[in-house]
């Protein structure tokens, strides 16, 4: 489907109407993560929606850090988020904004509301405040501090700010309506005391604004025209609009909500992902099993496939759970088109070719990709000793040719892009395991059909024994073995798949892959798609070369 054929979503409909009516001149969106964790696949959808709309309408999208809660935030997360956004949306040139840059402005707007009789310093403690708030079925009660004078509130707010009041003793609240059916409108908190240094503003503040008091005002400062967030903020919208209506803001932004992306077999809550990291269930935020953008990148998933996947999802007003197989379809499709082919023998057994001279060396030049000339060629060195995979060999001569299209003792198989060979005998080690297969080549079969009377069972992959590199291969399975690992009463930690990582040392790969870089994509023929691990350390066999399996070859997803 081309972009032109694609039905427009409800946000695009709103934008088109706003542009037509002239109420919006330039479309400005923002992506506002809180720097309290790494970005995950759910954030990717939000990035694609916000940056995508800005691009489509020739507008702009700001990356804005919603850094209003120093208790949970960290510079490490700020750096990681910038790296992830730049990777996912490389053409982005926009500004990096910080809510904390607006703290002075927010404070003066708080003073403005106090002067207008629309905010007050409240001394109810947390328990009483909850009690006074009422419930969904019961209206709330006015705070006894609600009618204190503006000058008293202004003085107390200043004392809160400079650190003269203890944490929990006072808050600044908007004076709205304690009987509102929407609990968010029952005199919501605008500022809390937190005697804590902030990663960017240092010790300047002892109070920090609430999400609700900050978000719409930040949007207004940045002239955001369409503030797009997820559905859980729908009940906050009246409050967003109340602040916009009651403050002298430089612009009047509007909030729109769309459904979160949830994936089965996955958790997409920063809190839970952080727990996986903190409790060492995974290697870190960028563990290739994590649904984080950095984990997906390290796993070998391309930014392009993440964007294509997000683009395939509806931008709708309902939440839904997407089948992980749909994501995998896009990952595989992209790799099939773009990954260079290579051969890696994961479970090697030595094959000695008795009729191929030990000092002979040939090089077979083969394409990097079967239908992408632009990906060049590679050279496969061939010699009298090669490795094939143990699983590609059997001594069982009764195996049908249809079922076992590999090497069987006494029978023929083709080595990919090389000779047809026949297995003649095996050599065993002291434990009885096959240590070597003795075989012979069928001459003149490179790039040529088998001679009369010889029929190869199939085609298998191989590497030269002397001209290959040792490597480690890491194979990943789903991190959770339940489709809804954190639904209802489930403790997601109980649903961790204990077999989600398999590390296989002593694999043999084409020697050219010694130069592979993290982020280069390969299809290891007959095995799957791989990329070099950006964080590998020396394995027990001394090799520093390690590959992450991004995904297997088979696609079962049907659109
Ligand atoms: P989490 O629930 O994982 O902690 P969050 O919403 O608290 O996420 P923020 O850093 O506040 O994380 O999110 C930044 C933006 O990304 C917000 O606009 C939020 O709506 C959006 N977002 C977060 N999770 C998803 C998701 N699963 N699908 C779509 N958008 C999301
Ligand atoms: Mg949030």
Please, how many helices? 12
- Oligomeric state: single chain
Q: Percent range for helical residues?
A: 10-25%
Physical arrangement of strands within the biggest beta sheet: 12-27-28-29-25-26-13
Portion in beta strands: 15-25%
Question: Considering the protein shown, what is the CATH homologous superfamily of the largest domain?
Answer: HUPs
Write down the Rg.
31 Å
CATH class of the largest domain: Alpha Beta
Description:
The chain has 559 residues and is α/β, with parallel strands linked by helices. It folds into three domains: 10-258, HUPs (Rossmann fold); 263-337, Orthogonal Bundle (Glutamyl-tRNA Synthetase, domain 2); 340-551, Ribosomal Protein L25, Chain P (Beta Barrel), CATH 2.40.240.10. Helices cover 25% and strands 25% of the residues. It has twelve helices and 29 strands. A seven-stranded mixed β-sheet has the order 12-27-28-29-25-26-13, with helices on one face. Strand 8 (226-230), helix 8 and strand 9 form a beta-alpha-beta unit. Helix 2 packs across helix 11, helix 7 (211-221) crosses helix 8 and helix 11 packs across helix 12. The longest helix is centred in the first third of the chain and has 16 residues, at 41-56. The mean pLDDT is 95.
Which keywords apply here?
binds magnesium ion, 25% strand, binds adenosine-5'-triphosphate, 559 residues, Rossmann fold, 25% helix, 7-stranded mixed beta sheet, Ribosomal Protein L25, Chain P
How is this fold's topology laid out?
Layout: H1 10-21, E1 28-31, H2 41-56, E2 60-65, H3 75-88, E3 96-98, H4 103-115, E4 119-122, H5 126-133, H6 150-162, E5 171-174, E6 189-193, E7 207-209, H7 211-221, E8 226-230, H8 237-246, E9 254-258, E10 261-263, H9 270-278, H10 293-299, H11 303-312, E11 320-322, H12 324-338, E12 340-342, E13 344-345, E14 348-353, E15 362-367, E16 377-382, E17 385-389, E18 393-394, E19 407-408, E20 412-415, E21 420-428, E22 434-442, E23 459-460, E24 463-464, E25 468-476, E26 501-510, E27 521-524, E28 528-532, E29 546-551
Parallel strand pairs: 1-2, 2-3, 8-9, 10-11, 12-27, 14-22, 18-19, 20-23, 25-29
Antiparallel strand pairs: 4-5, 5-6, 6-7, 13-26, 14-17, 15-16, 17-24, 20-21, 21-22, 25-26, 27-28, 28-29
């Amino acid at each position: 489907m081309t972009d032109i054929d694609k039905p427009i979503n409800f946000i695009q409909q709103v934008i088109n109407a706003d542009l037509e009516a002239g109420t919006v001149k330039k479309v400005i969106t923002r992506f506002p993560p809180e720097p309290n964790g790494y970005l995950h696949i759910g954030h990717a959808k939000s990035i694609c929606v916000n940056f995508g709309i800005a691009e489509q309408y020739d507008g702009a999208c700001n990356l804005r850090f919603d850094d209003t809660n120093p208790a949970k935030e960290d510079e490490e997360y700020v750096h990681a988020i910038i790296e992830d956004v730049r990777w996912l949306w490389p053409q982005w040139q926009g500004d990096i904004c910080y809510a904390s840059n607006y703290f002075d402005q927010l404070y003066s707007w708080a003073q403005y509301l106090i002067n207008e009789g629309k905010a007050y310093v409240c001394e109810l403690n947390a328990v009483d405040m909850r009690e006074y708030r009422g419930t969904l079925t019961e209206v709330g009660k006015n705070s006894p501090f609600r009618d204190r004078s503006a000058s008293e509130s202004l003085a107390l707010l200043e004392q809160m700010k400079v650190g003269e009041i203890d944490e929990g003793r006072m808050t600044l609240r908007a004076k709205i309506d304690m009987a509102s059916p929407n609990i968010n409108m029952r005199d919501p908190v605008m500022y809390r005391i937190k005697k804590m240094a902030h990663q960017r503003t240092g010790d300047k503040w002892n109070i920090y604004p609430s999400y609700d008091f900050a978000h719409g005002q930040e949007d207004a400062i940045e002239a955001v025209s369409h503030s797009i967030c997820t559905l859980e903020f729908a009940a906050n919208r009246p409050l967003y609009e109340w602040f916009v209506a009651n403050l002298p803001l430089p612009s009047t932004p509007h909030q729109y909500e769309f459904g979160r992306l949830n994936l089965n077999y996955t958790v997409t809550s920063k809190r839970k992902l952080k727990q996986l990291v903190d409790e060492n269930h995974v290697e870190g935020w960028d563990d290739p099993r994590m649904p984080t953008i950095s984990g997906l990148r390290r796993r070998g998933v391309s930014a392009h496939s993440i964007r294509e996947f997000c683009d395939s999802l509806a931008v709708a007003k309902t939440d839904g759970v997407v089948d992980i197989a749909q994501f995998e379809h896009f990952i595989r499709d992209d790799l099939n088109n773009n990954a260079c082919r290579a051969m890696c023998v994961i479970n090697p057994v030595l094959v000695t070719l008795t009729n191929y001279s030990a000092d002979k060396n040939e090089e077979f030049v083969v394409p990097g990709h079967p239908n992408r000339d632009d990906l060049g060629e590679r050279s496969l060195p061939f010699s009298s000793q090669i490795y094939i995979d143990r699983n590609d060999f059997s001594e069982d001569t009764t195996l049908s040719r249809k079922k076992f299209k590999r090497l069987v003792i006494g029978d023929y198989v083709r080595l990919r892009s090389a000779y047809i060979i026949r297995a003649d005998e095996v050599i065993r080690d002291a434990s009885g395991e096959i240590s070597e297969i003795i075989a012979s080549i069928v001459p003149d079969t490179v790039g040529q059909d088998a001679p009369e009377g010889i029929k190869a069972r199939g085609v298998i992959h191989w590497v030269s024994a002397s001209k290959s590199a040792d490597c480690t291969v890491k194979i990943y399975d789903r991190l959770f073995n339940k489709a809804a690992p954190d639904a209802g009463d489930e403790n997601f930690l109980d649903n961790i798949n204990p077999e989600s990582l398999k590390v296989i040392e002593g694999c043999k790969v084409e020697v050219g892959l010694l130069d592979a870089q993290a982020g280069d994509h390969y299809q290891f023929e007959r095995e799957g798609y791989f990329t070099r691990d950006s964080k590998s350390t020396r394995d027990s066999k001394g090799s520093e070369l390690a590959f992450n399996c991004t995904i297997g070859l088979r696609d079962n997803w049907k659109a």
